[in-house]
Amino acid sequence: MELKQLQADVHVITDPHRKEKNQYESEERDSLSLTISKMPCKRLNLCEYETHKLVRIQSVRLGSLKWTFNGVILMFICIVMFWNKEYQEHDYVVSSVTAKVKGVAMTSLPDVGDIVWDVVDYSGPSQGKNSFFVVTNVIVTKNQRQGKCPEVPPYGKVCWTDKDCVKGFWDQNSHGVQTGACVKFDVTQKTCEVSTWCPIETKKTPPKPALLASAENFTVLIKNNIRFPNFNFIRRNILPEMTDSYLKHCKFNRRTDPWCPIFRLGDIVQEARENFSEMAVEGGVIGIQIKWDCNLDGFLRNCLPKYSFRRLDEKESNRTLYPGLNFRFARYQTEKGVGERTLFKAFGIRFDVMVFGKAGKFSIIQLIIYIGSTLSYYALTTLFIDWLIGTSCFSKEARQNYSEKKVESVQDRQQCILCVSFVDENHIRVVKRSHRKSLQQVKPMSVHPFKDDIKHLSAMAGVLQKGHIIDKQPQALTRPSRPAWCLCGCCLPSTHPQEQLCCRMSRGRCITTSSLFEQLVLSRPLLEAALLYREPLCELTEGEQGTNALRHCAYNQYITWRFGAPPRESLPVIPSCSVWRIREEYSSQDGEYTGMRPSRTTSPQSSPNT
């Protein structure tokens, strides 16, 4: 049983003579590194490559979860790519629009008689680009002549005498220029006389129902020519398969004939969810939207217009000032050598044709850009699984093991992280060096399970089985003055806080009284075998140099026995009782020892005590 325990705890320690050789080799490497660092590519990091470190977890559950999430993400990427055609290069439409209205209506106007309205009469003046206007209602003031007449209230100023009127005065609400005379408007009031077309228009409210309500049966042919410059693609809404006979009889219907370019005005207003008879009274603005969504990829080529309609102005009279749409025009004639005109205040509907659209065509560059932009979605799988591992779905040991493998902590160079091992605990404590508290009393930063370092156990097992190791009885050394932080009774006082460490956390037997301490740490044959294993040609001489080599080997042997593989970036500390027991066995001739020298460059496998 002791042999098996020895095989589990033995570790080979480096020879101090080799330290000098390593130091020499290190100096050569530093010199070479200094030479290389003078190279331009080294200074500019041109001769370096960096890559990420991956941690592979052998788990069926996590592996299945990863591929499930990756599959869902891939499906989402593909759906979005085909739905939005992200693999295509796009170009926006350039278009022109012309409209031709047809229809005839007859109205009966008071004091005028029957009037026939054709396209010349009801189209009115040009309303701008991509628009056309249709008159639906009218107020007529006939037989106007140039002359003088009283201004119409409330635009005209009410007066009592000529002094109340200013000759030549006018403003934006006047129908003419004042003559300076105050004349009778009606039996109750007088207004200033103006020079204008007389009689002045007095009716302000349009008639109801609208005089040209039958305009809902008018039709309009909309011709829309489009072009996509990047693809040199030209098309119009009169499709190639449409014939002359078809265009003479077709009318747009969203269900039965959605591509016919001829529209009935009443249908347009109805598609905009409005009532033509009501809208015709005061007028308004209707938007005709033509959308081109074209796919120019080979056998999937498709480029057809889609029509939609909506009202663009505010239709409620009580919500807005000056509702509807109207303008004035006149027809001039000469009666007995005197020029006359008939004034029309026309109300109607303006139709604005708006064209939108884009075309897409396959582009390998756009496909590569889209794929590159979506690769980051796969990081969601890593984030989710990392979060899942950190939850209660996994045991504490599994979470800690994964964290240690995935996260590599680098400590501040100005700090010194130490690790201690107590004989009455089965784990290793990681603590921060304190300049005030004894190391025995410092609270741990973290706790790590003990890990055996079995790198050279097979070789050392052969040395132990040869029978050269003599089992000596351990010697319990009493100390005349036990410090307060000592709990085993075998430690010596020290003025350095980092050396004030006992082998126990509670009172009890000292580790130096264990038979294994004698065999693993103090046994000269084992220490000599460890030195020769590392340096077969090493000469184990008597004297100060040999004793120092054995003492350092004993320090490292204790570290391997009690710490195994210490946590990364931490420096193991040997208890005071064990340090002084080793020094008593392999003492220095002058009795002087450097003591513990914490350093960030010290290897965890090398002894911090000399």
Automatic annotation (TrEMBL):
Reaction catalysed by this enzyme: Ca(2+)(in) = Ca(2+)(out)
Tell me which Gene Ontology terms the entry assigns under biological process: calcium ion transmembrane transport; response to ATP
Give the membrane topology: Multi-pass membrane protein
Note the InterPro entries from the entry: P2RX7_C (IPR046815), P2X7_purinoceptor (IPR003050), P2X_extracellular_dom_sf (IPR027309), P2X_purnocptor (IPR001429), P2X_receptor (IPR059116), P2X_RECEPTOR_CS (IPR053792)
P2X purinoreceptor 7 intracellular domain mapped to chain residues: 419-597
Which GO cellular component does the record give, naming just one?
Answer: plasma membrane
Q: Where in the cell is it found?
A: Cell membrane
A Pfam family found in this protein is P2RX7_C
Ranges for region Disordered: 589-610
Entry keyword set: Cell membrane, Disulfide bond, Glycoprotein, Ion channel, Ion transport, Ligand-gated ion channel, Membrane, Transmembrane, Transmembrane helix, Transport
* Compositional bias of kind Low complexity: 597-610
Which PROSITE patterns does its entry note?
P2X_RECEPTOR (PS01212)
GO MF entry, a single one: extracellularly ATP-gated monoatomic cation channel activity
Source taxon at top rank: Eukaryota
**Spans traversing the lipid bilayer:** 67-83
In this entry, which stretches build a coiled coil? Answer: none
The family annotation for this protein states: Belongs to the P2X receptor family.
**NCBIfam families, sorted:** P2X
Protein name per its UniProtKB record: P2X purinoceptor 4-like
Gene for this chain: LOC120060675
